[in-house]
Amino acid sequence: MSEEETLLTASTSSSSPPPPLIHFTASAIPAIVVSEVISTDTMEVEAIPSASPSPAPSASPSPSPAPSSSSSVPSSSPAPSSSSSPSPSPAPSSSPSSESRPALMVSAEPERNSFPFEHNAQQFMCIANLKACQFEESNRAPMDVILVLDRSGSMLGDKLQTLQQSVNLMIDHLRSTDRLAIISYDDKVQVHSKLVLMDQSGKQRARAATQEITARGATNLSGALLTALDMIEETQHNANTVRSVLLMTDGLANHGIVNSQKLLQVTSNRLAELPQRPSVYCFGYGSEADSALLTAISARGNGAYYFCETIDSIPIAFADCLGGLMSVVAQNITVTVTTASPNVTINNIFTNFATEAVSVGKEYSITVGDMFSEEERDILIDLKFPQLPSASAELQPLIDVRVRYFNVLESQSWRAATSTGVTRPSQREIVSVKISDQVDFHRNRVRTAQAMEEARRLGDAGQVERARNLLEETRQLIQVSPSASKSGFLVGDLSSCAQAMDTPTRYQQSASSRLAAKSHKHWMQRSCESADYEITNAYNTSAKKESVARFSCSKK
């Protein structure tokens, strides 16, 4: 594996490392064959504010194969400790108003609702689901946005002009409570405008700063990015709620820190030092951009990587990103997954979010970062548990899930908890098996992301045909899975990537960067593409679509 690919898949941990992601083969996460489907119970997740006369609005009912408890409350106290059985989180130290509401709904679901007591389960999948609420844009939080723009010689002409036009469109759509800073870089770094409010005067200054950027010189990406992070630290005393760095480049770093591993490590260390960490979004234009490095930086910054294959895709990418930032509803999200019975063990947690082993095999803490309105995050959890001495109609608890986050809508810290389990009847009592569509779909999502990462590794090593075969094998596997009917866009992405690498030349021109962007999209469950917008962005949200539509109208 190349150094860049190692960066692409690495996850940080402040303690023991998490269970590693499986070494990929297309069938490494086993497919499930189902002969018959039976109906399942429906679980309704409800937010329960403490000492409130009535519960907060509940989420829409979602199917779950097993009973599950869930609660969501504001909190200024420490997170509840884990227990050996599912239980609601304890009452908070402060109570909300009757109109307060959670930003996230949390649920957990097993792949099947029962498992025979006579057998050991060696690889039993569950998911922990986080679903962000809808919200009105009029209620959105104010933003601090720092633009870091490549002005190296290769940006000369239409690329720089389109970039400047896109920045001006972004300026048009910012509010007077938002702040914007503009930094450009070649071999030197220039701060054109520090964070200023986007009132009429501030917008005029920002537009003037944008127009004074000219293409010249080399690419000191490290110097520009670190300057932006320094600015974040310098202004943290009066920071807006949402803080982001948007980094754009069309080439490789060839000035300052040019070693990818060192640059990523320095960036990670600098982010860790910041009391209020910003999200970092990277935009790579064309085939010369270091997509592996940009994807890794975005992952460490809990942002997203956009591959801008054509000039026309630049404004779409900026609009998509801005639509997300304008709809942040939850920040600093941490998910803790704990086994709920002594004989249950966590084999693996399939995610590229930073994961810390609190107790190996028993408890893991996952840093999710922020979520936009309508987004979902699903963490796939692989468990094992032994046979039982006798059948039991009682629910065997499997996992407890606890979530802590800052509720942007309420400007409060909140916590939520849920759990799930299975019944353990005898084999003869299980007439048929209902496999959860949701769990199987996320098995396919992980399978797709892993296949794309491995295909990129193979392609970069010159084994393009093997890479194409791997994508095709994965596509066929998904098409015969229980959730095939809802996995069409996974199949579509696998097919489009395979078609884009029919020759080594085409692989280098677009497929390598496309694989990086799409694998990141499926790991994050976040729209982060700029081509075939309406077709491929299955993780899209209303706010992102509206932002792209506004940009499109403004260009006409």
Characterize the structure shown:
- Helix content is 32%, strand content 26%.
- It has 556 residues and is an alpha+beta fold.
- A six-stranded antiparallel beta sheet has the order 3-18-17-12-15-14, with no helix packed on it.
- The longest helix has 24 residues, at 437-460.
- The protein starts with a helix and ends with a helix.
- Residues 1-27, 30-67 and 76-98 have low confidence and may be disordered.
Low-confidence stretches: 1-27, 30-67, 76-98
| Strand arrangement across the biggest beta sheet | 3-18-17-12-15-14
Structural class: alpha+beta
The dominant shape is globular
Overall pLDDT: 81
* Largest sheet, strands/sense/barrel: 6 strands, antiparallel
* Percentage of residues in DSSP E strands: 25-35%
Radius of gyration: 24 Å
Enumerate how many helices there are, as a single number: 13
Q: What is the first-to-last residue Cα distance?
A: 46 Å
Please tally the β strands and state the result. 18
Helix content: 25-40%
